[in-house]
Amino acid sequence: MSLYSNTLSKIEKACEESGRSHSKPVLIAVSKTQPAERLAELAHLGQRDFGESYVQEALRKRTALAALGWAERGLIWHFIGPIQSNKTRLIAEHFDWVHSVDRLKIAERLAAQRPAGLPPLQVCLEVNISAEASKSGVLPSALPALAQAVAKLPHLHLRGLMAIPAPSADPASQHAAFRHLRQLLEQLRAAGLDLDVLSMGMSGDLEAAIAEGATHLRIGTALFGERVYS
Ligand SMILES: *Cc1c(COP(=O)(O)O)cnc(C)c1O
Q1: 136 lines ligand 1 (CB under 6 A)
Q2: Local confidence band at 133 (pLDDT 50, 70, 90 cut-offs)
């Protein structure tokens, strides 16, 4: 079985076990470091959502995919990497989603730079739920104020939350981290924000993420094999 169909069955099985057969998460194929040909292979198998962490690399591959005929065939591009201020314009112009907004200044730049002819940029706020392990992400204590401010910006549609928990092989701690993110989303909804996205779950913890309510999985290694950084 191919890595792709193997991953789809894993997701299917986890959905059944969590009683989610009718509300499956979106699979985002995290294609950073993979050449355009690998993306085209998955696109031919029906994959539509792709996640990239480096702007220039993503744009190079999209040019290559366009040459292979994939420009107008509905691929959906998610930016999931750390965002430097000098990269916001390219992200605003070329991506459909951004999962890694963690400060107001970046959101304001994306809002100002989103071209008027495009639909709103779909935005998730990245939360630092394992504070010691990661430098990126807003701390849970600062999340409500950031969410309220981002929700008011034009040309952006705030959809929900994203997190990259500290890697753990222990299902109990995987569940705890994802449950924490879900509770933070529920608190924002209780405060009046209309949010529907939990972007959580990678190759090593997708079952726990599905059980805790992930709406978007970001999966690389399980789909493409180990990444090789050059
Ligand atoms: C690389 C990456 C992933 C995919 O991780 P895998 O373990 O390869 O599935 C998911 N999310 C983000 C933000 C990433 O940078």
Answers
A1: no
A2: low
